[in-house]
Structure formats: structure tokens, C-alpha cells
Amino acid sequence: MAEVVLENICKTYGNSFKAIQNLNLEIADGEFLILVGPSGCGKSTALRMIAGLEDITSGHLYIGGRDVVDMAPKDRDIAMVFQSYALYPHMTVFENIGFSMRLAGKKKAERKQRVDEIAKTLQLTELLDSKPANLSGGQRQRVAMGRAMVREPAAFLMDEPLSNLDAKLRVQMRAEIASLQRQLGVTTIYVTHDQTEAMTMGDRVAVMKGGVLQQVDTPKRLYDAPVNAFVAGFIGSPSMNLFEAELSRGTLQAPGFALQLPDTVLSERPALRGYDGRKIVFGARPEDLYDSTLASGRDHQAIPAEVVTVEELGSEHVVHLRLDAVPVDSGDPDAVEELGGLSNAVARFEPASDVHARSRIDVAVDCSKLHFFDPETHLAIR
């Protein structure tokens, strides 16, 4: 096991494209860190630089206290699990897992003992004589992990290992990988574009955009205290609703409604007072917008909305709404405007709600849970 430290890491390609800009990260010994972000944000490039598969233009990379920038991949004491599994099709599961030990000249008895231990941990014992073609996607992924584990590396690097699996299997494998990582205690850096994976698996999550690290924190802190509108919009599913409004004497004024901010909000965010009389961006999580007819006993204000469509999921209704307010782009290049622009907000209603498409309703808002951002920089207002 080892600490992994990135100091001012940059990656510039021959066409002057800056894929990574001054990336600074410290991954503690035994930590499970998730690198997440939209397509093209630089997360896979960063992982490949740690692995030695991409040259580092400038900066320092330490694994276990050693600067490995000029070291070959084989000398960095890391193991990588790829999206495509990269198993040898002509070899059995046993041979795939033990391949690196065979290359290292380990004796047959030692190889068998180690592979048997790993197979037991990964529940692959009954499949050791099988070929990859006869395995399910989840089983292949476990074999790929076993091949990485057999080397007992200082760190695991995982590049979107679940993206080829179906939705149900992804949920199962998320839990298995997180549990296995805790059991092994190996420093792990895991790349994904799926923020649900990021929020459910990692000790900390590093959010990237355009080659720049935006925020690194625990999943809860990322969700509760995003540093900017991009992180706010990217983390969470459905994503945070962001709108433009004018702040006037503690009241948010939008074209179709006004929201009076509680005194606690203004006292907890003293910088808000400097925006009086100015435009501001405010955000509301879908779970903080709810059916006003079911809001008895809750401290809330209501805003008028049109229901565009309702997704009844059993445990909740995901309600797509049209509000008379100007939506704000969070800067996520992968974001797709809901229903071709017919809706500009998403809410989570209780299953008891009987709202239906094309109806006009009052949506209750928990103003104590709102987030606020500068309209120019999109930085959070504290």
C-alpha cells in the first residue's frame, strides 16, 4: 500500500491542447478516491499518467514517496483494471489471474496457493477452469480484478470498469468493488463518468472539468456544499435546478415568483448581503421541491408551475416542470436539456402525489435548502 501524490501535474499535447492543468491531489494510503467528470474532462488522462501510459508534461508524481515521473509502468508498483477487462481469451481463469506470477518466475505451488486465495475472495473458485468466453460480464470483471490483486500492488487504478455491464449488474458490482477495496485496504483510484458510482463508492470524490480539478471532498460535502455551479449541477441525479433571479432585501425575484429567504440563510451566508439589488444564481435540489398539497407541517413557500410529465417510480414521482424563471447552464457539456426544452426544472414528489401532465400546480420550496452562486464566476456564495 502507498500514498499517491500529484503535484502541479500538467499534460499538453503537440497541438498545444492542455488536457490537464496544474492537477494537485493527495490520495492517502488505503484510500478509495473517485475521479469523476463529463466526457473529455481529463480524468482518464490523469489515470493513465499515474499508470505511466501517458507522459507527464510537467509536475511531480509520487507513489509511496518515490517520484515515478521517469519510471516505466512496470516499475511503478501499480495494477490497472481496464474497461474492456483485457483478458487472454485462450487462457483459463486460473491462468489469467496467475499470469503475472508466471512471468515473474514464481513456482507452480506458490502460484496455485495465491490464485486459490484470490479466487476464494472473489467467489471464482468454481470457475478457475473456465475460459473468458464462458463467463458473464460480472465474472469477467472479477477475473480482471483478480489479475490485478495477485501482484499485491501499492495501488489499484480502475478505468471505468463497470461501463460495459448492464444497469442491474453495475449496482451489484459497485457494492462488491467497494467492499473488496475496504477488505484489502489498497490505495485505489477509480475513474468514472457516472456520478452515482462516485457518490456510492468512494471515500472522497474529485470532480474535474476541462482538465481542471473543481473540488475534492467526501460525497456528502460535495452534495451539501458544492464550490461552484458546475459541481452543484453535476453531482446529484436528477441534477440541481439552477435559475437566475434578483436579490432584493432578502427576497429572490424571478419573472413568475418571489421567494423570501429565511433569516437563517442570510446569517449563514453573510456574503449574500453584498448581492442586494443584483442578479444572482440560485439552486434547488429536486428533493427540496415538493407537492404543496402534501406540505402540511413543513416550512415552505410555493411557486406556480406547469407539469410537463411525471415519471412514477413507485417510491417517488420524478416530476418535470416548467417554471417562469430563467434557467442557468451549469457548464456540464454532457447535460441534455430536459424534453427538448419543454421543462426547466425537476422535482421529486412523494408517491402519494396525484399530479399529472399538463396540469398547473403550486410547487413548495424549502428555502432553507437553497444554494447560491455568483452569476459571473459561478462560485458558491458563502
Automatic annotation (TrEMBL):
> GO molecular-function annotation terms?
ABC-type transporter activity; ATP binding; ATP hydrolysis activity
Q: Which NCBIfam families match?
A: PRK11650.1
UniProt GO BP? carbohydrate transport
Q: Where is the secretion signal located?
A: none
Which membrane topology term applies here? Peripheral membrane protein
Quote the subcellular location field of this record.
Cell inner membrane
- Which Gene Ontology cellular-component terms appear in the entry? ATP-binding cassette (ABC) transporter complex, substrate-binding subunit-containing
Q: Which SMART domains match?
A: AAA
Q: Does the keyword ATP-binding apply?
A: yes
Q: What keyword terms does UniProt attach to this protein? A: ATP-binding, Nucleotide-binding, Transport
Q: Where are the transmembrane segments?
A: none
- Asked if the record carries the keyword Transport, the reply is yes
Under PANTHER family, the record lists: MALTODEXTRIN IMPORT ATP-BINDING PROTEIN MSMX, OSMOPROTECTIVE COMPOUNDS UPTAKE ATP-BINDING PROTEIN GGTA
Q: Where is the ABC transporter domain?
A: 4-235
Q: What species is given as this protein's source?
A: Jiella pacifica
Which CDD domains did the record assign? ABC_MalK_N (cd03301)
Q: Which InterPro entries match?
A: AAA+_ATPase, ABC_transporter-like_ATP-bd, ABC_transporter-like_CS, ABC_transpr_MalK-like, ABC_transpr_MalK/UgpC-like, Mo/tungstate-bd_C_term_dom, NA-bd_OB-fold, OB_MalK-like
Protein name (record): sn-glycerol-3-phosphate ABC transporter ATP-binding protein UgpC
> Family per UniProt?
Belongs to the ABC transporter superfamily.
